[in-house]
Model the fold of this input.
Amino acid sequence: MQLAHRNSLVRIATQRDVTLILCYHRIAGDVEDPFHLCVHPKNFAAHLEEIARWREPSTLSDLSRPSRRPRVVVTFDDGYSDNLSVALPIAEEKGIPITIFVTSGMLGDTNGFWWDRLGALLRARPKGPGEFFVETGGRTRTIPIGARDLRADFGVVRSHLLPLAVGEIGCALDDASERWSVNSTAPPDALPLTRDELLRLAGAELVTIGAHTVDHVRLRDRSGEEQLQTITASKKELEGLLDRRVCHFAYPFGRREDFDDETLDAVRLAGFESACTTLPGSADPATDPYRLPRRLVMNWGRTRFRAQLQRWRLA
Ligand SMILES: [Zn+2]
Done:
């Protein structure tokens, strides 16, 4: 066999076993979206059509099985209510399976996720220069805000809050809410799933539910014991509610600096079969199932999404 021909066959065989895992958060149109978490329903429908056209729509449980075409797995992080009301009907219409990583302790929480509360606070606060205070380890850190645009303020305050314990983040938000006399609950369109909504979502044939910790803490900054506790508890809570095994996990935030070796040990010990990061790349049979790479999807139209699929395949 000629070398060039053999190499092309090897390349085809390799590409067939490549799996692109996509990471979405919310499917919503015409809403405030300071952290770029929303994909418009029209764009999401176009994405799913493109996936069905060019790839093999799959689930995380399919990764080790042979495939005729390169696979795509569609995942959602956090467990927003619009995953049921908006994303599911589109996924069902297009016949594409979706996996939703749910933050178990946030089910039915009417305040919302802390980043959405932060967005609401900074939008509603008195205009002009101001300060955001963060108390951690007995020290108060002052973050100046209002000198640049709102998006810059979101970014800088979020980066200071992200490493903190969830209780500390809540205190900082409550403090700002009181000082500015503004509401700090997330917008009604950005709330987490309720328990009832989760049950309806999990009852859909195309849906797999995964875990995402109890409170969406950044795991790296916590002790090994604390990590194991929240990872195991999220699995047990969801399994108790759904009366089925929960086999897949996604690390909150998911970047290299957001988890460590103790996190991987805890995920294995808790009994998960796989864990998704947000590290870029594609998975193949040799990929560590506890470090699955994913591609974050933005609010792209059809043409841009198709170009991204092509780019990611070649990356
Ligand atoms: Zn998340």
The CA atoms of residues 25 and 253 lie 11 Å apart. The longest helix spans residues 224-242.
